[in-house]
Design brief:
This protein is an alpha+beta fold. The chain has helices at residues 2-30, 59-64, 179-214, 217-236, 239-243, 249-274, 277-280, 282-306, 308-335, 341-362, 370-373, 375-409, 420-437, 451-458, 460-477, 501-516, 544-559; strands at residues 34-35, 48-52, 71-72, 78-81, 86-95, 101-108, 114-120, 126-131, 147-153, 156-165, 170-177, 441-448, 483-488, 491-497, 530-536, 566-568. Strand 7 (114-120) and strand 8 (126-131) form a beta hairpin.
Length: 576
């Protein structure tokens, strides 16, 4: 009896051990397989990887390798920097339905040269697909910039082998998706891309218009910079391949690095022009030109002697070097007093950070994800916005400087009143209005009495102070729509639109009272007086200058009489 119990216990133990091992084995083989009942993004954690350094092994060779030679990837995407090897990926796919289910293989980024897929069905049938940027665009299942293939998975568990080779930075994320899900997601992505590209094109057209209007070269260089960015971005994202180079894969591949060098030079030229290095920083101007020549030389020599691999590698390094240089130059310009350089600096800094993050991702120095991969795009979008703000700020500064210069050219420096030059412009305008509308118009001509004696007795500084106080009294007395000018020396003139002689006389009396009440601190005994002549525009006058002559005649009648008085010119030359 004890022996039977012993035997029964052993049987139960071995059965349980068998079931446990079977369960673990099934778990190890099937739990990591991809269930295609739903879509899967970036399936790297379900994938095993093998690196073929010879890049010559076929599928038959790979299938003969021991299973343990494939190592789990354990991350969403695979990145290997620059490599001449072929990278093989292996994973299982489970279709729990009894009928075939179609799924779409989608590969990111768009620049992969060779993508070869082999799907081994549960029945052992092998289905192969070939694609990538080294092949014409028509090899893709869907008309889309990302490499894609559609496959109908049979019921049960299939095994997938994918071989990838590329001369560009080796980074790959694989997704296995329903076609409808992929298309709906891409519809949103296309909307975002369209809005971004539309915004950049709008900025491009606007700044081109500003260039033709203002003729400032930095607007033209900004337009070139935007065009270069759009071309580069559309090239490495695969948009070019869809529409322009679909039948010329080699041209498509070389366009990435060639356009990168063009973009770098455009960025340096724009920085040179915007920061006005030629005028303010001659050494930086020359060093920028030398850097452009160096980058172009590297581009040429790496293409001729190094080939595609080195051409691409140096283009990435050149972007980082040039971006760093632009940030340093922008910081120096800002510290040197260029106000608008602050936007330029922050924009360049965002572009540099984005370029560095993407470059480090491509070189496998930091982990891949959507944001690290697209960091250069995000950085450039921010850069473009901030550079537009920099241009707007620079335009505002230039406009303010132009208006100030224009105002200064029309303003008497000492008194702040309008000057003789502007007086002649106003006279021409007012003469045309008076001839057409026949409105009332009066003039007051004012001269400070004994001004030369003030200068001789108290000095020119006291004379200047007196002129300023007279000017203040005038501006404090006249109305908003009146104009006051200093003609030179101690002579002033006031133009009074829509004003009769009698009203001009009333205004002049108020002004004379204020002038007589001017108190000069350094000379308690000095009494300030002034003489004024008034005249109105008459129908027979050719222009305002005829009116001024009559006011001048009335003024001199006061000057040669008692002074400190006001006289209106009349036909009888009698004062009022």
């Amino acid at each position: 009896m004890p022996r039977r119990k012993d035997t029964l216990v052993r049987i139960i133990f071995y059965v349980l051990l068998y079931l446990n091992c079977t369960t673990m084995l099934l778990a190890s083989t099937s739990s990591n397989a991809i269930d295609i009942s739903s879509s899967h993004h970036n399936i790297g954690k379900h994938i095993s990887i093998y690196k073929d350094p010879t890049a010559s092994m076929k599928l038959s060779d790979i299938r003969k390798l021991p299973k343990e030679i494939f190592k789990p990837l354990n991350k969403p995407a695979s990145s290997h920097g620059f490599t001449d090897a072929s990278i093989w990926y292996r994973f299982n796919v489970i279709n729990h339905k009894k009928t075939p289910v179609s799924r779409l293989f989608v590969f990111t980024p768009a620049w992969l040269d060779h993508v070869n897929i082999a799907v081994i069905s549960p029945s052992g049938e092998v289905k192969k697909y070939q694609g990538g940027n080294a092949l014409p665009y028509k090899h893709r299942t869907l008309d889309h910039y990302l490499i894609n293939f559609k496959h109908a998975f049979e019921a049960g568990e299939s095994q997938v082998y994918i071989e990838v080779k590329t001369r560009d930075p080796f980074i790959i994320a694989i997704s296995l998706m329903e076609e409808s899900t992929f298309l709906s997601e891409q519809l949103f992505d296309s909307l975002i891309i369209g809005l971004i590209y539309g915004g950049i094109i709008a900025l491009l057209i606007y700044n081109l218009f500003l260039y033709f209007r203002i003729k400032e070269k930095y607007y033209l260089f900004y337009v070139i910079y935007l065009i270069a960015f759009l071309l580069l971005n559309s090239s490495y994202n695969g948009y070019w391949y869809m529409s322009i180079t679909s039948n010329y894969p080699e041209i498509q591949n070389w366009s990435h690095s060639i356009l990168a060098y063009i973009f770098i030079c455009a960025a340096l030229l724009f920085a040179n022009s915007f920061l006005n290095l030629k005028k303010y920083h001659q050494k930086l101007y020359r060093s920028t030109l030398y850097l452009i020549y160096t980058i172009l030389t590297i581009s040429l020599f790496s293409a001729v002697f190094g080939g595609y691999h080195y051409h691409v590698m140096f283009s990435i390094l050149s972007i980082i070097v040039a971006s760093s240089y632009i940030v340093i130059v922008a910081l120096y310009s800002w510290k040197s007093g260029m106000h608008s350089a602050r936007y330029f600096l922050f924009g360049s800094l965002s572009g540099l950070i984005g370029a560095c993050v993407t470059a480090l991702t491509l070189m496998s120095l930091i982990p891949y994800n959507y944001f690290t991969y697209k960091a250069s795009d995000f950085g450039m979008y921010i850069d473009i916005i901030l550079l537009s703000l920099a241009l707007a700020d620079k335009y505002k500064i230039i406009q303010e400087a132009r208006l100030k210069a224009e105002k200064d050219s029309k303003t008497d420096v000492l008194t702040g009143l309008k000057n003789r030059r502007f007086f002649y412009e106003i006279c021409a305008q007012e003469s045309k209005k008076l001839k057409r509308y026949k409105n009332d118009f009066s003039i007051i001509l004012l001269d400070i009495d004994n001004f030369k004696q003030v200068n001789d007795t108290y000095g020119h500084s006291m004379g200047d102070l007196l002129l300023k106080q007279i000017a203040f009294s005038i501006t404090d007395t006249i109305r908003v729509y009146d104009d006051a000018f200093r003609l030179g020396g101690d002579e002033f003139i006031i133009l009074l639109p829509k004003t009769k002689e009698e009203d001009a006389y009333t205004l002049a009396k108020h002004l004379l009272v204020k002038i007589n009440n001017i108190y000069v601190k350094a000379t308690k005994t000095l009494c300030i007086t002034a003489s004024m002549g008034i005249s109105s525009f008459q129908a027979q006058d050719e222009d305002i200058h005829d009116t001024i002559k009559r006011a001048d005649s009335a003024l001199y009648q006061v000057k040669f009489a008692d002074k400190n008085d006001i006289k209106i010119w009349t036909n009888e030359n009698k004062g009022t």
